[in-house]
Amino acid sequence: MFFDLISLNRYVPVIEFEHFVKVVGEPTVIDQIYYLQYYKGGFTSGGWVEKFDFTECNEPARYVQDPNGQYRGWFYGYDTVSAANFSCVSYQGVASFAAPLLQDKPFRSVMLPRGESLLHNHFGQYSYWAARRSMRFAKHLRLVGDEFRRKYLNSTDEEDRTVLLDDWREMKRQHGDALGGPYLGVHLRRKDFLYGHKKDVPSLEFAAEQISGLLSAHKLNAVFIATDAADEDFEHLKEHLPGVQVLQFVPTHEQLHTFKDGGVAIIDQWICAHARYFIGTQESTFSFRIHEEREILGFKTEMTLNRLCGDEQRTAEACEQPGRWTIVQ
Question: Minimal CA–CA distance to 216: which of 240, 257, 244?
């Protein structure tokens, strides 16, 4: 639904969940759910130790046993799916440390919700980037983003120097190979970040001031904004950017029904990834994914690794920019 399976399978065997359901048949029973979670209290030993334990759930259980002994909960919208066994697992370690959870067990199928609890064994190294390069967005989502770029932003892969090769293994771009479309890409996170990361999120007025300065510096007059801001906030932001073409992707009812929120987020990321210059939100994984896409496409680092500053971060010292890490291929 969200990723190109042909591309992924060039790195590791993968099938869509809907294919799994068809193969197993309905009703579908998953043998075991290991619900991953962090340890309460963090590093309890005063230092980093790899470990995992079967513990009580830190939060109310997301999967509840029904009268027939099956565990019911969120299975990506599939009401006919259940699990035979469920355990919460407190985990602290790299992914390979989880092998004993899966090896020599009488299970044919295991589900690991919250897989982000597993740290990558070689983060930022070749194997990490090989996996990441294989994770191309699904073609139907890329096409929607490409059509939006062409129609509203005068942006095409040929002119922007962002043409994808069919096989990611053959595509090895250098920094500066990509030019990007004639627009500024912005990811402005709001909602929970207004409370959880208050100092790093600018007011709408200061966000507009930063956007205006970047447009002037790069001789651009169009900005694409990916944001979870309320409609009235987006309109307020536009009011502070007079004379600027301010755009966002608004899905039709049919697109939202078909692509879901996750697909719409991918379209936003894809459009931002092709901008001449990108600036994101500190500590946001959404912005981080865009950084990675732009690294793969071959943009200059200084045109990618940038973030909006909070209202009290008006100096270079106060507004620390994202770390300068680069692709390994």
Answer: 244
- CA atoms of 205 and 21, how far apart (whole Å): 49
Where do the DSSP E strands lie in the chain?
Answer: 28-30, 32-37, 51-55, 64-65, 71-72, 81-83, 86-92, 110-111, 181-188, 222-227, 245-247, 275-279
Q: Give the Cα-Cα-Cα angle 329, 143, 156 (nearest 5 degrees).
A: 75
Look up residue 75 and give its two tokens.
Answer: 């299975």
pTM: 0.89
User: How far apart, in whole angstroms, are the C-alpha atoms of residue 140 and residue 260?
Assistant: 13
Q: What is the mean pLDDT of the chain?
A: 94
225-to-91, 129, 147, 267, 299 alpha-carbon distances in Å:
36, 27, 16, 12, 19
d(C-alpha 239, C-alpha 244), whole Å: 10
Task: Find, among 50, 23, 54, the residue nearest to 36 by Cα.
Answer: 54
Q: How many CB atoms are located within 10 Å of the residue 314 CB?
A: 13
For 172, the 3-state DSSP assignment is coil
Residues 6+ apart with CB under 8 A from 223: 183, 184, 185, 186, 211, 215, 241, 244, 245, 246, 247
Residue 290 CB coordination number (10 Å): 26
How far CA 156 is from CA of 51, 160, 258, in Å, comes to: 48, 6, 25
Q: Measured on CA atoms in the order 127, 7, 27, 73, is the torsion positive or negative?
A: positive
**For the chain, what percent of residues have pLDDT higher than 90?**
84
N-terminal to C-terminal alpha carbon distance within the chain: 27
- Give Cα separations from 10 to 1, 13, 172, 234 (angstroms): 17, 8, 16, 40
Whether the per-residue pLDDT at 43 is higher than 80: the answer is no
Q: Report the b/e string of 35-61 with b at 16+ CB within 10 A.
A: bbbebeeeeeeeeeeeebeeeeeeeee
Q: At CB < 8 A and 24+ separation, what contacts does 66-69 make?
A: none
